[in-house]
Design brief:
InterPro entries: O-antigen_ligase-rel_domated, WaaL-like. It is a multi-pass membrane protein. It holds the Pfam family Wzy_C. Helix 3 packs antiparallel against helix 5, helix 5 runs parallel beside helix 16 and helix 8 packs antiparallel against helix 9. This protein is 62% helix and 4% strand. The relative contact order is 0.13. It starts with 9 loop residues before the first helix and ends in a 5-residue tail after the last strand. The chain has a two-stranded antiparallel sheet. The protein has a two-stranded antiparallel ribbon with strand order 3-4. It contains 17 helices and four strands.
């Protein structure tokens, strides 16, 4: 009987399947979708399976502590606390229902416990997927990219079919939400998936020897961004393409002529993007500016505790101006940071600040690995997009965000870069080989 020392590969297929499925059915924005619950359960079970086996990969302690504090903050919002704590900290209308706590002397931080529990499951699933990817070997992390690309391709094909049939086709009955762009309910979130894919497509073209297919993929993504009609998506898609080429090509072997050809193509794309933006009317009276002003008013009165995660829609209504109440209601602040601050209070603001510090510190460590650089670009622009939208409120983009952060904070890439620095490249009968410095040939 022969025993193989080859490490198992089932964990990468398991996590890759979760990522792929989330991109297929996780594009809804409404609460209580059974598809989101399926993804969350699959992510947690898959993470448990990955954690059941030993791994040589270590977690960054700072990241682990940040996740623990984030989960603890959400749990704190659904724990009955003495009512005296809330005295003077929030308006009477937002004191919560004492009947849910069992006695009138106790109240919850969350004004809607059910919605906060949904957010807790959402956070735990994303964190579990993130940590399980951190436990993979670096080559397994690379192997998750095809699953991601398959999900993007499926969304792109759905978008091509929709835009080829009409300008505003909607698909109902296939998923528990109406599909309006790709496999997403919101065209802005579809655009977000497209532009976060651009650095990875550039990485494959520049570093994996697939320049032609990478260029075709890049052109397709940019054309889909124009067709999607998201102003932020078009602008970010243009910016992230330029930065991806500049940021990644510095260490690649692609000729300068190829880079010049790409920039000429981007110039033409800029003209089309500007025409698209100018053609769309922007409503300054009832738009994101008004949402932000109203949300800030809510933050001022609830800064200590927040209103509970998942309760933006319920709490926002008491701060709306009378002349701003229409048939359509505001479901999100269209600014992720303001919404998190409104729902989570001062502690949530502190955790966001800590994450940004950690992300900035990670930038100094990812400069040597092109895949980590690509992930850093994608995460950065998704965070920029969150200034004017709420892309991370969809399971598809939340799992993508967790995957990209796992690439950034994975300790295995640093070790591999250190090994490469101790090797030199030689030509042996036409083959490129890496040998230790100082070794005799």
């Amino acid at each position: 009987m022969i025993l193989s020392d080859r490490p198992s590969e089932w964990d990468k297929y398991l996590l890759g399947s979760v990522l792929f499925i989330s991109l297929l059915i996780g594009g809804g924005t409404a609460s209580g979708l059974y598809t989101d619950t399926l993804i969350e359960v699959a992510a947690i079970i898959s993470a448990a399976a990955v954690f059941s086996q030993s791994s040589g990969q270590r977690f960054p302690r700072s990241v682990l502590w940040l996740l623990m504090f984030a989960v603890g903050l959400v749990i704190l919002q659904i724990v009955p606390l003495p009512a005296a704590i809330f005295s003077g900290l929030r308006p009477e209308l937002l004191l919560g229902d004492p009947r849910l706590a069992g006695e009138r002397d106790f109240r919850f931080v969350s004004v809607g416990v059910g919605r906060t529990i949904e957010c807790l499951l959402y956070l735990v699933a994303s964190a579990a997927f993130f940590l399980s990817v951190l436990r993979l070997r670096t080559e397994q992390v690379h192997a998750l990219l095809p699953f991601f690309f398959m999900g993007v391709i499926c969304n792109g094909l759905a978008g091509v079919i929709q835009y080829s049939l009409s300008d505003g086709i909607a698909i109902e009955g296939l998923l528990p939400f109406t599909i309006n762009a790709g496999l997403f309910a919101n065209e802005n979130h579809f655009a977000a998936l497209l532009f976060v894919s651009i650095p990875f497509v550039a990485y494959y073209g520049l570093f994996r020897g697939h320049l032609l297919s990478g260029s075709l993929g890049l052109v397709t993504l940019l054309l889909l961004l124009l067709a999607a009609g998201s102003r932020a998506g078009v602008l970010i898609g243009l910016a992230i393409t330029v930065l991806s080429i500049v940021f990644l090509s510095a260490r690649s072997r692609v000729s300068r002529l190829s880079i010049l050809a790409v920039f000429i193509g981007l110039s033409a794309y800029t003209i089309g993007a500007w025409t698209k933006i100018e053609a769309d009317a922007i409503d300054p009276a009832f738009g994101r500016g008004e949402f932000a002003r109203t949300t800030i008013e809510g933050i001022k009165e609830n800064w200590a505790t927040g209103v509970g995660f998942g309760n933006f829609q319920k709490a926002y209504q008491i701060y709306e101006k009378e002349e701003m109440i229409f048939k359509q209601y505001v479901n999100h602040a269209h600014n992720e940071y303001l919404e998190i601050a409104f729902e989570g209070g001062a502690l949530a603001i502190l955790l966001m600040a800590l994450y940004f510090v950690m992300l900035f510190m990670a930038l100094t460590k990812v400069r040597r690995d092109p895949l980590q650089k690509a992930a850093f670009l994608s995460v950065s622009f998704l965070l920029i997009h969150s200034l004017v939208d709420y892309p991370l409120r969809t399971e598809a983009l939340a799992m993508t965000f967790a995957f990209m952060n796992a690439i950034i904070f994975h300790k295995g890439f640093a070790g591999r870069s250190a090994q490469k620095n101790e090797l030199i490249e030689i030509d042996h009968n036409g083959d490129k080989l890496f040998v230790p410095i100082g070794a005799s040939s």
